Structures are given as structure tokens and as C-alpha cells.
TrEMBL record:
Protein name: ATP-binding protein
Recorded GO MF terms: ATP binding
Alphabetized InterPro entries for the sequence: AAA_16, P-loop_NTPase, Sig_transdc_resp-reg_C-effctor, TPR-like_helical_dom_sf, Tscrpt_reg_LuxR_C, WH-like_DNA-bd_sf
Domain of life: Bacteria
Classification lineage: Bacteria, Bacillati, Actinomycetota, Actinomycetes, Streptosporangiales
Species of origin: Sphaerisporangium corydalis
Keywords: ATP-binding, Nucleotide-binding
HTH luxR-type domain location: 877-941
Length: 946
């Protein structure tokens, strides 16, 4: 069959209406999902072609399977053709000047570049804002991003930003392949939230049914009388995939022949379909098509002709519809399936020669794409070039901060059975080094364990690989039970390599992990320092110094800041600065635990800058999660749950390194009376296996769980948890970590009548922090003394202790803890009959409410009601009669979580009858008929409770 015209869109009428409807109601987000060949691109193109006439920019960007490390590349690709739509530079938002370096084609149309920012995260946010402002300036616009499943993390983050705060006239359309495991997760991640004022549509594309396959085939063949048997057989052979149906029908010599489909081949018939279409092409055109297949990605004419050697054939291949023109003057296949079919049909020797030509042509470029070079070298059989380009690509990606790509490249090389055995060891070491700064670890761990089981590694390489495996298990995986034995085994193998052994001892010396005493960790640190003193290795010296600074800070040592000041942050060597980035991450975490929030912020700023400069993904992520905890402590709760959920989304493979996130989500749930959620998150923060988890967070989670048990009247459980947690704290000997545990444990012991135990704990805690720089712990000591004094009915003393704690917490600042201490003071005043109690509880109810601690606020309001004082909730300005009041929002949240009226009454200290009335009002205002229809708030997938 010669040439068949492209058919109209078949079987997609409702999907087409949905896409057009969303595009014409901006701001909008349209996600078109489907398997390869399902017609996603054709649907979007058809929708664009049917949009109502008007001045609307259509911006097209593409994600590619083989990608080089270029942040936000698909979006910048889409923006390059908008120069003619921009207003004068002086009319643009000045922030758009930040895009000059990314969009040189538009530099003359953009405002001047702003001064660079010291904080890389702030710089990235400014770039995001600039892109949003640019899109707003050219609106209305449709931004289409194809093949989102191949997008890099930065592009996904940018699209989440744009779809979370879309310009008024922007419609974002993304196509992506549905994940093979069939989950319903958004391609933008679970952190993506549908904005209520944004049109949001997900359009899934399923295979065509038999009738639609018949209509599609009939349109292709320009006839409407196809035999039912032919249509049924065509549907069976093609599985209803539109692209395969089209390619199959185009290759048929005669649909009337009974065995036409059988003779076309199996399975999917794609190879035969493409062979038929190419059969009529000239030798030159076939060469161009095969060159495009070898290159895989859409390529410029010069590159295709360099590989195919036939410049005249490209136009013929385009006219025949075998190749298609892509934006930016590039040419390739309409679909990856077509590319693969042609590629597989090229004889092996010809493929190798073509890959060799591709390697030479790409290598001659000013900035050779190293990932593509490595791919072509491997396919050409040039092992030496493959290793050279592959390792260079990995190092380049790591240097640019794309550690995930660096790991991916090395993993692919180690997975290749053609990799020579002598080269596996160096690559395994490279992989383990990259893994120590990245986030992903599961495949890395499997590969390293496989390499260690083989017997081809030298003893030196084996020891270093095992050491790095242990570090990755302990850090990224958060599994010290598995990681520490590997580190100990590595130390035995590295006995003759003291410099590497020093790194292992320094890793074991970090007291936040394991059950060993602080004295044991000090011995290990001293061992590491004695070994590094004899070595001339700046990177190792920086690593050990980083751990010493972290050690001093986490224990609240008076020497911590002096040692931190000696970190070589300005060293020209990337590896050294990467160790300093890790140190600043640890220092930020420890300073946050100590209550030194100003110092913590400074460490965070330095750490982020160095982490971005050196491609240290792991420290950068830990800075983010510990910042979440600092925001909780300092009272920045607005939007905190959503920010925590977003970070938890990034740790789906490594939930144990996100323990700060689970802790904060647990504490937020506790403050709002979400008991089951709080318990789940506290266990996720480390209480599932406390001896193998991050000790400071485990202690804080235990304090939260004790508070929960006390709130719910479960005194025995509270005491049992306090006993276990305090025993772990005593065993470790780092008392400053008790700031969020000791007051709760003292309260539990005292309420249970074990006043002596409570008094001993207060004394030991005071002695343990006496010479420590730990303002949070010192404030907690006064809070614990207040709890003990209240239990002993020394209410005047309790007032003094709680007042000092309240003031100390306020100075930090730690407003929630200050309010909790203020509540202790108010209760002590109430016990003495002090009239100041009423004012205290009134102020506390307002303060807790402003923070979002709805359960604590309700508890204070309950006290006021009990003593005959009325407390009115702030009403604010009601925009309409259907808006929920503050109390109704509290009730609605608990209804959405599946709570019964009795449970809601317990959380909010209301009568069941009052709750029933509120629930009825909530249902009426929301316009729903059932409790199950009340929308549930977003919540991350935390690790399950064992």
C-alpha cells in the first residue's frame, strides 16, 4: 500500500472535549496519561488545533530518555520562541532578568540580570518566579511538556511550582506514560496539590475497543465496509493501541486478503509495519531514517547526515511521514516504538558502524553530550571509549549537582554483562562514592553487595567499597543495624590503609547512632583523629574534622563553635568542600536540637551553598528536613504540614532519613487531636526500632508519645514509654537530647505517684546539661522542675519554674513550648486561687489557636468553661454564609479523618450533642449528604506502625 493519509482522531471524543475545555479555562493543569503509542501527543495536537481563535501562545517542550544535566531544560526549550510576544523589557517584571543566562535567545528582550544570591535555594526560587512572570507576560498561553515520565527532578519541581501558583492565563499540559505498577500517583508527585481556583483535569487514554479500531482502520483505508472478522483480528493483533493499528494498516498490501494480518508479522507487528513503509524509500532516505534510529533523540540535519552519510534522503523520509520535524530544527520519529522498530531492523555490523560515526560526530561538538557518547561507544563495541565517556559523564553530572544521573550512568555500566572484570572494581568504588552524596540507595546497595560477593576486587578496593556501603546503609537508608556491621568488617579489611580506616572510625564515632555510650564514641573519634594526623589527605582530614565539629555541637560542647570555625569552607577542592557541606548540615541539625536557631540558620545557608556547589544531594536534603523541625519549634506552622508532606514525598525510597518530617507530622497531629496519625508518625520517626534509629529524634518522638498517652488518660502506657526512653537517654549519656523528653517523662512519673523517680530524673538531667550550651534543654529543665513541684503541691514554686521556662522558651523562640509552660503556670495559679489564672488561660487559648494547636486551645477553653468564664472564638469576616467557622473547620477536619462524634467531642472538649450540631452544619455548608464525602486533608505515606 502506498501512502495513507493521517486519520481523524478516532475514539477520543470525550477526552478531546476535556482537554479543550480545560485549555480554554485557565489557569489550568491537564495531565494526559497513557502507555506508549496510545495517542497522547496526537490528542494534545488535535486539541491545540481546535482551540477557539485568539491570540494564544503555544509553547512546546520535550523530555528525553537520554538526557544531559541541564536544569529545567524542557521548560526553557518551550520558552525560546516567545521573543515576538514579549512586551518591552522595561514593562517586564525585573525578576525575569534572572533568565538571561538560561535563554540567550531572549537576552536582548529581558531586563538586566539581578545580582546573584548567596543562597542557591533562593536563587532557584528566583528563577522559578522569573519563569512564572515571563509566562504571565505572554499570556494567555498553553505550555505543553511532552513525556513527563522522563523529566528530571528539577523540571518536576518547577512544574509543581507553576501549577501551584499558575499565572492567570496559563494552561499547563503534560503527557506521560502511566507507571507500569499501575499506581495512581500524579506524575508531579504526591506533593502536587490541586488548587481550588485552578481547572485540573487528568485524561487517561485506554486502548481502543473493537468498534474504534474498525473506524480507525476504515479512516486509514478510506472505506467503511471492512469485514467484521478483519476488524476483530486487527484488534486482537494490535491490542487496540492506536499507533500500532495505524502502522499495521499502513503496511497492509490488501485488507481484502484473508491472511493479510497474519502475514504482517507478530507481536505488535511494528517491525513489519516500519519495514513496509521504508521499502519504498530510496537508499539515501533509508540511510537518513536508520541514522535517526541510531541517534535515538531528535537531531539536527547535519548530525543525521553525518551518521547516515546521505543528505538528500532526509527530505524524502520527511515527505513519506517516516520521520517528522521536531521543534528547534531537529528531526526524528513521531514515536519511540517506531524508532526501536527501525533500529532493530538495521544489520548488526551496520549498527556498529553507525554508532561509531555518531560517536565521532557528537565528539566533535563544542560541548560533547557525554551520556550520548557513552551510549554510542557501547553500541559501537568500543569498550575503552565507553568507559572513558561513561566515567566522564558521571563525573560531569556529579559536578553539576545531578547526582542521580551520575549514579544512573555508573549503575548502567555495572549492570552491563560486557563490562570487563578489571573495570568493575573502580566503577563500584565510584558508585559508592556518588551514593554517599545522593538520595537513591536501593539499587546501589544491591549492586555493591553483588560486587562484594564476587572475588575479583582487590583487598583495598573491597575494604573501601564495603566502607562506603556501610555509610550508605547507615545514612541514606537509615539502617544502622545493617550499616554498622559492614563498617566494622571494612575496618578489619582496611587495617593496612589507616587513612580509609580513619573515615570508618569517624563514622562510628557519631553518637546520634547506636546504643553505645558517649565515652565509647569519644574513643572512636580519638582513634580516627590519631590515624588522620599521620596522613597527608586533605579530603580525609576534612571528613574527620567535620565529624569532630558535629560531635561537639551535638553534645552542646562549649568548644563546638570554635571547632566549626576551622572547617575549610573555602578550600578549592570539591571533595573537601563536600565534607564541609556535610558538616554544616550536621551542625544545623544539632544547633536546632540545642535551641540555637540563629546559628542553625547560618549553618543552613552555608551548607546549602556548598551542597549545591559540590552536588551533595544527601546533605542538602537533610538540611531541608531538619529545617522542617526548626520551623515546628520556632512556631512557623502555617503551611508546615504541606511542606513536610512534600519532603516526605522525596523520601519514598528512604523514609528513614526523613525522620524529622515524620516527627513534625506526629507533633502537628498531636496538637490537633489526630491520635492515630500521631502514633503512626512517631513510630515512623524511630519508635518502630529505637535502638537502630536516629537517637535525638527518637527521644523527641518518645516525648510526643508520652504526651499523647497522658492526654488520653493512658497513664500506664505513658510511664512504660517514659521508662524505656529515659533508659536509652541514660545509656547514651547525651543529656541535651532530653529537651523534648524529660518534662514529659517527669510528668508521667509524678502523675503515677513515682515522685522520687521524677526527682532523680530532674537532678540527673540538670547535672547532665550543667556545662552544656543548650538553651532548649535549660528551658526544659525549668519546665521539668515545674512539673515536679506541681506534683508535690508546691504550687508557688511551680509558678516560678514554669514562668522561667516560659520566658526562656519565648526568647529562643519556641512559642509552642512557651505556651505549654505557660499552661503549667496557669494551672499552678488556679490551684492557689490566683486570679491571674483566668487571664493566663484566656491568653493561652488565643495563642494555641493562632499556632494551629486546636486541641491545646480547646483544652484551655474547657478550663475557662469549668470555672465559669465564657470564651468566644474569633469570628473574623465572613465572606458568605456557606463559609465554615473556625470551630466548624476543626470539626470538619476530624470528620474527614473518620472520627466519630464521641471522639471529636473528646478532642475538642465539647458535648456530643454540640458536635452533632456542628457536623450537621458542616455537611449543609459543604453541600454533601454523607460524612464520607467531607474532603480529607493531605497526608503523606508514613512508614507503618509495626
Amino acid at each position: 500500500m502506498s501512502s495513507v493519509p493521517s486519520p481523524a482522531l478516532i475514539g477520543r471524543a470525550s477526552e478531546l472535549r476535556a482537554v479543550i475545555g480545560a485549555m480554554t479555562r485557565p489557569p489550568a493543569v491537564v495531565l494526559v496519561e497513557g502507555e506508549a503509542g496510545m495517542g497522547k501527543t496526537r490528542l494534545v495536537r488535535a486539541a491545540l488545533g481546535r482551540l477557539p481563535s485568539g491570540d494564544r501562545a503555544v509553547l512546546l517542550g520535550y523530555c528525553h530518555q537520554i538526557r544531559e544535566p541541564f536544569p529545567y531544560g524542557p521548560v526553557f526549550e518551550a520558552l525560546r520562541d516567545i521573543a515576538g510576544r514579549l512586551p518591552a523589557a522595561q514593562a517586564l517584571n525585573p525578576v525575569t532578568g534572572a533568565l538571561r543566562g538560561y535563554l540567550p535567545e531572549l537576552s536582548s528582550a529581558l531586563p538586566p540580570s539581578p545580582q546573584p544570591l548567596d543562597d542557591p535555594r533562593a536563587e532557584r526560587h528566583r528563577v522559578f518566579r522569573a519563569i512564572r512572570a515571563l509566562l504571565a507576560a505572554v499570556g494567555p498561553a498553553v505550555l505543553v511538556i511532552e513525556d513527563l515520565h522522563w523529566a528530571d527532578d528539577g523540571t518536576r519541581d518547577l512544574l509543581r511550582f507553576l501549577t501551584g501558583q499558575p499565572p492567570e492565563g496559563l494552561a499547563v499540559v503534560a503527557t506521560y506514560r502511566r507507571e507500569s505498577h499501575g499506581t495512581a500517583r500524579s506524575p508531579l508527585g504526591r506533593a502536587y496539590l490541586h488548587q481550588p481556583d485552578t481547572t485540573s483535569v487528568v485524561v487517561p487514554l485506554a486502548p481502543l475497543n473493537v468498534a474504534d479500531v474498525g473506524r480507525l482502520a476504515g479512516a486509514l483505508l478510506e472505506r467503511g465496509d471492512l469485514p467484521p472478522e478483519f476488524v476483530a483480528r486487527l484488534h486482537e493483533r494490535t491490542a487496540g493501541i492506536p499507533f500500532v493499528v495505524e502502522e499495521m494498516v499502513r503496511s497492509l498490501p490488501d485488507a481484502e486478503e484473508p491472511d493479510a494480518l497474519d502475514r504482517a508479522g507478530v507481536p505488535l507487528l511494528l517491525r513489519e509495519a516500519m519495514a513496509e513503509r521504508m521499502a519504498g524509500l530510496s537508499y539515501a532516505a533509508v540511510g537518513a531514517v536508520q541514522a535517526a534510529a541510531v541517534l535515538r533523540l531528535p537531531a539536527a540535519e547535519q548530525l543525521i547526515t553525518s551518521v547516515g552519510g546521505h543528505s538528500a534522503g532526509l527530505g524524502e523520509a520527511l515527505r513519506a511521514g517516516v520521520l517528522h520535524e521536531h521543534p528547534g530544527g531537529r528531526y526524528g520519529f513521531r514515536h519511540a516504538l517506531a524508532q526501536q522498530a527501525v533500529y532493530d531492523a538495521v544489520p548488526g555490523p551496520d549498527r556498529r558502524s553507525a554508532h561509531d560515526r555518531a560517536m565521532k560526530a557528537l565528539g566533535a561538538m563544542d560541548s560533547p553530550p557525554l551520556v550520548q557518547l557513552a551510549f554510542h561507544a557501547r553500541q559501537a563495541g568500543d569498550t575503552e571509549a565507553w568507559l572513558r565517556h561513561g566515567t566522564a559523564a558521571a563525573h560531569q553530572a556529579a559536578a553539576l549537582g545531578d547526582t542521580a544521573l551520575a549514579i544512573e550512568v555508573v549503575e548502567g555500566m555495572l549492570d552491563d554483562p560486557g563490562l570487563p572484570a578489571p573495570d568493575r572494581g573502580p566503577l563500584a568504588l565510584m558508585l559508592s562514592r556518588f551514593a554517599a552524596t545522593g538520595l537513591s540507595h536501593q539499587r546501589v546497595v544491591r549492586l555493591l553487595r553483588h560486587v562484594l560477593r564476587d572475588d575479583f576486587l582487590s583487598s583495598d578496593a573491597r575494604g573501601e567499597a564495603r566502607l562506603n556501603l556501610g555509610v550508605v546503609l547507615s545514612n541514606q537508608a537509615g539502617d544502622t543495624a545493617a550499616g554498622r556491621p559492614e563498617i566494622m568488617a571494612a575496618l578489619a579489611e582496611l587495617s593496612h590503609r589507616p587513612t580509609l580506616a580513619a573515615r570508618g572510625w569517624a563514622s562510628l564515632a557519631m553518637p546520634e547512632w547506636g546504643t553505645e555510650s558517649l565515652a565509647q564514641h569519644e574513643e572512636w573519634m580519638a582513634c580516627a583523629e590519631s590515624l588522620v594526623a599521620t596522613a597527608d589527605n586533605p579530603e580525609l582530614a576534612a571528613a574527620v574534622l567535620a565529624n569532630r565539629a558535629s560531635f561537639e555541637m551535638t553534645t552542646g560542647s562549649p568548644d563546638a563553635f570554635a571547632i566549626a570555625a576551622t572547617l575549610p569552607a573555602a578550600d578549592p577542592r570539591t571533595a573537601v568542600r563536600r565534607e564541609v557541606a556535610r558538616a554544616y548540615c550536621n551542625l544545623h541539625d544539632s544547633a536546632t536540637s540545642l535551641g540555637l536557631y540563629g546559628a542553625a540558620e547560618k549553618f543552613a545557608q552555608k551548607g546549602r551553598r556548598l551542597a549545591v556547589e559540590t552536588g551533595a544531594q544527601y546533605p542538602a536534603y537533610l538540611l531541608d528536613v531538619s529545617t522542617i523541625r526548626r520551623e515546628w519549634l520556632t512556631g512557623r506552622w502555617e503551611g508546615l504540614r504541606d511542606r513536610a508532606v512534600s519532603l516526605g514525598e522525596l523520601a519514598t525510597e528512604t523514609p528513614l532519613i526523613a525522620v524529622d518530617v515524620w516527627l513534625v507530622l506526629g507533633l502537628l497531629a498531636l496538637a490537633t487531636g489526630e491520635w492515630e496519625e500521631a502514633v503512626k508518625h512517631f513510630y515512623g520517626a524511630g519508635l518502630d526500632a529505637p535502638d537502630a534509629r536516629y537517637v535525638p529524634i527518637v527521644a523527641a518522638a518518645a516525648g510526643g508519645l508520652i504526651d499523647l498517652y497522658l492526654t488520653r488518660g493512658m497513664l500506664d502506657e505513658a510511664v512504660a514509654e517514659a521508662e524505656r526512653a529515659v533508659a536509652r537517654l541514660r545509656q547514651k549519656g547525651v543529656w541535651v537530647w532530653g529537651a523534648n523528653l524529660v518534662p514529659s517523662a517527669v510528668t508521667a512519673f509524678a502523675w503515677a505517684g513515682r515522685v522520687k523517680t521524677a526527682a532523680e530524673l530532674v537532678a540527673d538531667f540538670g547535672a547532665g546539661i550543667a556545662d552544656r550550651i543548650a538553651p532548649a534543654a535549660h528551658a526544659a529543665l525549668d519546665a521539668a522542675r515545674g512539673a515536679l513541684a506541681s506534683a508535690e503541691c508546691r504550687h508557688a514554686d511551680a509558678i516560678g519554674f514554669f514562668a522561667r521556662a516560659r520566658d526562656a522558651y519565648a526568647v529562643l523562640p519556641q512559642p509552642y513550648s512557651a505556651a505549654r509552660a505557660g499552661e503549667g503556670e496557669a494551672r499552678a495559679r488556679l490551684a492557689l486561687g490566683d486570679g491571674g489564672a483566668v487571664a493566663g488561660f484566656t491568653e493561652l487559648a488565643e495563642r494555641f489557636g493562632q499556632l494551629g494547636a486546636t486541641h491545646d486551645a480547646a483544652r484551655c477553653r474547657r478550663v475557662l468553661r469549668d470555672i465559669g468564664v465564657e470564651f468566644q472564638l474569633p469570628r473574623g469576616r465572613r465572606r458568605n454564609a456557606s463559609a465554615l467557622s473556625q470551630r466548624e473547620r476543626e470539626v470538619a477536619r476530624l470528620v474527614a479523618l473518620g472520627r466519630t462524634n464521641r471522639e471529636i467531642a473528646d478532642v475538642l472538649f465539647l458535648s456530643t450533642r454540640t458536635v452533632e450540631s456542628h457536623v450537621a452544619t458542616v455537611l449543609r455548608k459543604l453541600g454533601v449528604r454523607s460524612r464520607t464525602q467531607v474532603a480529607s486533608p493531605a497526608s503523606p505515606a508514613a512508614p507503618p506502625v509495626p
